[in-house]
Design a protein that fits this description.
There is one protein chain. By secondary structure, the chain is α/β, with parallel strands linked by helices. The protein has 16 helices and 7 strands. The protein has helices at 2-21, 27-34, 38-46, 65-79, 84-87, 92-100, 106-109, 121-133, 137-150, 153-174, 179-200, 221-232, 246-255, 274-284, 302-307, 316-332; strands spanning 54-55, 61-62, 208-212, 236-239, 260-264, 290-294, 311-312. The chain has a 5-stranded parallel β-sheet with strand order 4-3-5-6-7, with helices on both faces. A two-stranded antiparallel sheet has the order 1-2. The longest helix is centred in the middle third of the chain and has 22 residues, at 153-174. The N and C termini lie far apart (85 Å).
Amino acid sequence: MDKLIFFLYNLDMTEISNTYEKPSHPIKVVATRTGLSKDVIRVWEKRYQAISPERSDTGRRLYADADIDHLLKLKQAIAAGWRISDVAKLSERELDELVAREPQPAEVAGSGPGRGEFDTGSSYLSRCLEAIGEMNPRKLDALLSSASVAMTIPRLLDELIGPLLVEIGERWHLGELRVGHEHVASSVIRRFLDNLRETAGMHANGPTIVVTTPSGHSHEMGAMMAAVAAAVAGWKVIYMMPNMPSREIVATALQVEARALALSMTYPADDPQIAAELRFLREQLPADVAIFVGGRAASSYLLLLEQIGAVHLTGVSDIIEALGAYRAQAKAG
């Protein structure tokens, strides 16, 4: 009898475990049970690989109870002040230990005491996307302004503006947003980034950096974010707008006595003209003028960047760290 009870107990526990791990919940159920918006769940999945839902035969995301529990723990960690980029890939045990710590260190979390989940980029993201879907530029501008007060500029760029631009692009390609939506959003975000750069650079008296995109690359949001990051790092920023011929870039850099050039390359990733443009820049600029290159398409030109001695940057924190270090070097020189 005891053996039978033991067998049935183990059988029940196995079934419970399998049910816990079995992906069967649509994203609507997950959003209800976690209190997270569908947009935030998707971003945490796609950008940070926090969870890996399976797909149904029709392509719908399906989540297990274990996924829901993990999302709830991530939500707790973020409410305690941690960034999603810091905690997304932690184990359940590590998350439990993290949440148990009080208070969270501001220098790691990026936010001070008393900040909650509504002071994170993820919490603003869904509301920004909602404003864009409603064609409501005033609401979007107000949300961005609120976020700029709640977060530091590096976190704002890394956790909200970057993911927002990616999500807008993906929804446009999927047909969920029209060209009009994209134009309204771009207009608001462009103006916001311009103001942010001016605010960040109000007291900058460091060396001069020219920021733009090379000829043939007309997507400027990455360059605008780089310009803000450069201002935060203490540089005097000359922003040239996008799609600049190499001769104009060189002329501007020489006139303002720039110590560095930052280029953003988002699209295309197979530009046949870019090699000649970048080689010309390196040949015509003084040897002590550093060239920094970032953007989604930059990784397609790594060999070329290495050949011309350019520095490849991969994110906002990377930009600020690299430019901060080079500014100190340039100042010393």
